[in-house]
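Changelog entry: the Sulfur carrier protein FdhD record was regenerated in this release. Current contents:
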Amino acid sequence: MEISAKEAILRYENGRLENQTALVAVEFPLTIYVNKEELVTIVCTPEYLEDLVIGFLTSEGVIRGVADIDEIEIIESTGHAYVSANFVNKFNAKYRSKRYITSCCGKSRENFYFQSDASLLESYNETETTLTIPAIFARMNEFEAASETFKRTGGVHNAGLCTADEVLLSRMDIGRHNALDKIYGYCLRNGIEVQDKAIIFSGRISSEILIKTAKTGCGIILSRSAPTELAIQMAQELGITAVGFIRGESMNIYTRSDRILMK
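Regenerated structure tokens:
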């Protein structure tokens, strides 16, 4: 399925109007059913959908992990994902039942999280991973250079998983949260440990992104943009290193600066 589409536009540039075509990001509604019951509809970019489903269900606490899933069937033509699970957290599944999640990250989605995340403070395991400042700049440059869909459309967010030496994995989506769920789902499916790595991100570090980062087990998040006040408070409580405004030769280290080394 295509992740971008051509649209006719009227472009103004250098004092002239011209008829042109532009690439725009595709929005795709995916309705997830768990054990034949409708759970949620997510508006997303239509790629790596199985990773998205696994990452979403695990990070939302509907299942405990990939071992709880017996089968996933994705029907792209109708926008449905059917999940057969041998274990379902009935409270979380009921609470989330038939919710519609847009590609934006507004207050309604943040409320969707907080009511079921009280146990997170007790379950988070801190990482001993450190990164040098030169490594952070290098990884951000590598990450942005590979963001081809953003360069073409300007309409998606990017998330990645990196070490000090390389960006291991990168995913994009119209929703910041979806991009991170795709990363998490891929790691769950392939048994990739994330505790000794860092999340690298293109957009704002909101409270929901901070929560999802904590749930993956990563203790470091790097972003080209800024965190919110609530995200900083959560990062302090959870022991997560939040680094933002990584641009050129500058960055802001908001929390747990002990993990960031000069060289």
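The chain has two domains: 28-122, 131-261.
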